[in-house]
Amino acid sequence: DMATKKNTSSTKLMKKKADDAVVYQVMAALVLLCCGLLGLRSLRAYYSTIGGFSALYDVSYLIGIGGTVLALACIVAAILVKRPLVRALLPWPAAVGIVAAATGFSMRLAWTDGFPFLYFFCGALALQYIILKLYRWEFFLVSLSTVLAGGLYFCLSSGMLWTYRAIFLIAVLAVTVVGSSLAVLTASRHGGYFRFFRWNVHLLGKNGSPALVLAANGLWFLCTVAVLILGSLFAYYCMFAAIAVEFVAAVYYTFQLN
User: How do residues 50-72 score in pLDDT, each as one tens digit?
Assistant: First the structure.
């Protein structure tokens, strides 16, 4: 009995420490998001001047390439390194690399016109990290395709202009829809688990079903096809549909936590 009580108290203590760590990580993500948005705002103001453009235009590609290398290095390290502490810290430099890559290439290709997309990109990155920490993988996959679809429709709502941002988003959305659909279908046949390299990722909970992920993916596939046919006005309405789906999914999965 004493041993059982000791194990129970030890388990509760470890769970409390894990919960506290998640809270700190979410708070850190929100702080970094605010700092990133303020930094991008200042960078936009500087880059819009003749002096700022002259100083940064030639090095913007180097910023993009450096960010890409940093992000890829962190991803490879997360796959190869086994120490939990190192793997827990790697998402932070990876996020910095991803934002730096997006910023550098956007500055080079779109001048200051790409900064609204960068604001969205930073917010989406922070949102997905927070969802991954607080909710199930199932909600993360639903939210990922929804956020990407919403960003694509936002880019196309001002006109059917195939900018680099729109091309990037539709490519990532296609990969996400296909990849997440295959992942949840595989997980549904293996007790909710999906094998990713050397990790078994618990994609579906005890009563989880791939239906919601597949429904969201199917919805955005149909909406994207419709946008390509009907044009920017329909993209505008689909953007608000994505916001509504994200809100409903957040409410649903929040209740699922209880």
Answer: 999 999 998 999 999 999 999 99
Residue for token pair 């946008």: 227
Using pLDDT thresholds of 50, 70 and 90, give the confidence band for residue 15.
low
Mean pLDDT of 82-96: 83
Q: Which backbone phi and psi does 159 adopt, to 5 degrees?
A: 140, 145
Query: Residue 98: is it exposed, middle or buried by C-beta count within 10 angstroms (0-12/13-18/19+)?
Result: buried
Please report which residue ranges of the chain form alpha helices under DSSP H: 2-47, 50-80, 84-89, 91-110, 115-134, 137-157, 164-188, 211-230, 232-257
Distance from C-alpha of 124 to C-alpha of 150, rounded to nearest angstrom: 10
Which tens digits make up the pLDDT trace of 134-162?
888 889 999 999 999 999 998 888 775 67
Q: How far apart are CA 184 and CA 245, in angstroms?
A: 19
Sequence-ordered list of residues with C-beta below 8 angstroms from that of 143, at least 6 positions apart, any chain = 127, 128, 131, 246, 249, 250
- What pTM does this model have? 0.84
Percentage of the chain beyond pLDDT 90 is 48
- Tokens representing 171 are 């490519």
Distance CA 118, CA 163 (A): 14
CA dist., res. 132 & res. 150, Å (int): 19
Task: Please answer whether residues 25 and 16 qualify as being in contact, where contact means their C-beta atoms are separated by less than 8 angstroms.
Answer: no
| CA nearest neighbour of 128 among 143, 107, 149 | 143
Encode burial over 164-192: b for 16+ CB neighbours within 10 A, e otherwise.
Answer: ebbebbbeebeebbeebbebbeebbeeeb
